[in-house]
UniProtKB/TrEMBL annotation:
Coiled-coil regions, chain positions: none
Protein name in the entry: Short-chain fatty acid transporter
Ranges annotated as spanning the membrane: 20-40, 52-74, 94-123, 135-161, 181-200, 241-260, 266-286, 307-331, 337-354, 415-436
Domain of life the protein comes from: Bacteria
GO cellular component, one term: plasma membrane
Phylogenetic lineage: Bacteria, Bacillati, Bacillota, Bacilli, Bacillales
Originating species: Chryseomicrobium excrementi
UniProt keywords, alphabetically: Membrane, Transmembrane, Transmembrane helix
Amino acid sequence: MKTLTRLSNRIMERFLPDPYIFVALLTLLVFALGVGLTESSPLDMVVYWGDGFWGLLMFTMQMVVVLLAGHVLASSPPIKRILNKMAGTVKTPGGSILLVTIVSLVASWINWGFGLVIGALFAKEIAKKVTTVDYRLLIASAYSGFVIWHGGLAGSIPLSIATPDHPFQGIMGVVPTSETIFSTYNLVIVVALLVTIPLLNRWMMPKPEDTVTVDPKLLEDEVILERPEQITPASRMEDSYILTVLIAVLGLTYLGWHFVTKGFDLNLNIVNLIFVILGIAFHGTPRSYLAAVNNAVKTTGGIIIQFPFYAGIMGMMVTSGLAGVISTAIVSISNEHTFHLFTFYAAGVVNFFVPSGGGQWAVQAPIMLQAASELGVSYSKTAMAIAWGDAWTNMIQPFWALPALAIAGLKAKDIMGYCVFVLILSGIVISLGLFFF
């Protein structure tokens, strides 16, 4: 395994470009495929790309906020103490890899946005304590937990079809989570991944001579508080705890009302609000909070510039019908026994071009549900096969790695050599779960 991971890392370091180059090449590939495999003309594809370019604008802002607010919260004194205490529970590189992976898996199963940020922040804190751990593998381990998210409590597809009046209710009805998230096959897959991925990551630890470490001083987030030379009414407000308390009470009251009236609805907006309100409260004063924001905002550049390009790709894939062509081609070779397996693989392919769970469901559901009806197989399992395919290939799709990479200060090529093996293992586990259960 050490030989294989060393080879994989060298290949990625040599050939995997910056995520922006990746998305630019992906854009050109989808353009060419759309012209070649659909009836769309080159001008049509240009229009589809331009019309879709801002289609993920709200989601882009949500991701910027989750990264920014999560980073700010983690730099607050109370959270730093908690992360520091947790990081102090491990003393060895192997224990560090196992703990980071487990924390990331559990957090991602609860909520993908929460897991994506907390995993990377916790890994960064551990790297300050265990200086002999391979930093690349540590961050890859934090990101590897993300593979489990669509089988968890915040899975967008199972939650969507459990909601009355969802777009495909006329075909499949309202599907309770007992048939999706809490079904036997899904729980078997989740438990198997919870056991095997930490062990795989531990197994991939490089030899001491190949280990890439990081100076703990480079991981410190230095927040500089600029004090005014003269005390003024404005500066007093910037150092006021009263304003912080009032805003925190306002936010916490709303959160309490939300969970009382809507149950455990931990959507991305609520996760962001939790991060923002706790960050304000834990930093104490507006001056401290804004200083932390200014320090964290530099990590958001990759998301801001790259997500619109993925929206353009999604526009070409959906409007041209290319996503349907790919899905139909893969599923056409299946039967009632292999249908869910090939649906999973089809979703994994489409996920490269439509890296949004909700968007992918909208594209693939009409095709897959019709095929499921013709073969007489389970609609709910079909939905979960798409969900798992959407989560699976995230392991080698830089789109979702951007927040973790921004927090860690790494590039995609630094971790993808390890993530390839997580992709292989999780693909085998999910395939066996869908086929035999």
